[in-house]
Amino acid sequence: MKAIQIGLFVLLALGGLGVVLVRDPLRQALMVGVYGLLLALLFFVIGAPDVALSQIVVSTVAVPVMILVTLAKVRSQEAGDREGEDPGSRGSGG
Amino acid sequence: MSERARLVMFLAGGAGLAALLGWALAGLPAFGAFNGAYALLINHVVVAQRAATDAVTAVNFDYRGLDTFGEEFILFTSVIGLAVLLREQRGEHTGPSAQTSDEHRFQGSSQALRGLTLALIGPIVVLALYLDSHGALTPGGGFQGGVVGAAALLMVFLGGGYMMMRRVSPHGMVELAEASGAAGYGLVGLGGLVFAGVFFKNFLGGGTPGQLVSAGTIPFSSMAVGLEVTGAFVLLWTEFLDQALMVSGE
User: Fold this and answer.
1) Hey, which residues 53-72 in chain B have their CB within 8 Å of chain A?
2) What are the sequence ranges of the domains in chain A?
3) pTM of the model
4) CA distance between the termini of chain B
5) What CA–CA distance (Å, rounded) separates B65 from B73?
6) B93 forms bridges with which residues in the sheet?
7) pLDDT per residue over B65-112, tens digit each?
8) Residue B237 is nearest to which of A52, A65, A77, comparing CB atoms?
9) What burial class does residue A12 get, using C-beta atoms within 10 Å of its C-beta: 0-12 exposed, 13-18 middle, 19+ buried?
10) Cβ distance A35 to A16 under 8 Å?
11) What are phi and psi of B93, to 5 degrees?
């Protein structure tokens, strides 16, 4: 095993730990992206560039976006609940 | 159950799990050990047989083209199912009007972000087209290029707001791209049936390995899949963004 591979394995272990230990969902979404990028680097170093490309686009683009949009939906719902009966007035303050 | 009993149970279970894990890890093959006869065979014959220099893409779009056909329709049907589920439903209504919603930016949007995304859109589109078209030559292919292409439209959203993204990628066009990409890949397979008698047989000549137009049907498959994946991901995101930004429930 080459040094760069060992280094990436260690970083991946730390990254996985980071994803679990970070408690704020927004930061968690970013950590998942970073973790996916590390995984992609590992795939690249091991000699699987095709898989690395898929990993980059799915794990650093597609998945964080889905998480962020879900968070936005949850937050706008919570804001709507707080504002009461007229959710149509939301966002007009822009 | 008392705390002490639970601790004892955990220690016993944890010790058992650790022992089994250690046993399993001890029996693993060495790091980098490889035993895939089929992969080695493909690596030897792929350039001569298919004139493709990227064996992975050749397997995806040619040797195992039928599997990719199935995978593609998994993506297609799941995105269609999601679009059906996330449509504006009874009890929900479209929230702010188009104009106010475009001003309704997410927190943290800044001039620097807008400038950066504006500068990135062009290179990302080029990268997506490169990955789509060079699938048979270099690592990449339709799936990767497709998601990169969708990311370019996401950049439009980040830099220009949601309504701008909807303007450059109207719903009808996105659906058309997804459907025609899926159909195009199916047509490549049907072409094999018509011209060579076997579904997904590579019915075009290989050409010179390393040339852009080579490897027979593989570039066409790759570009069709790229179109489909771009459409699928943009549709996925716009449906979710619709839900998050426009539609509000009771």
Assistant:
1) 54, 56-57
2) 3-83
3) 0.77
4) 43
5) 12
6) B248
7) 888 888 888 988 998 888 888 776 655 666 554 445 544 455 556 778
8) A65
9) middle
10) yes
11) -150, 155
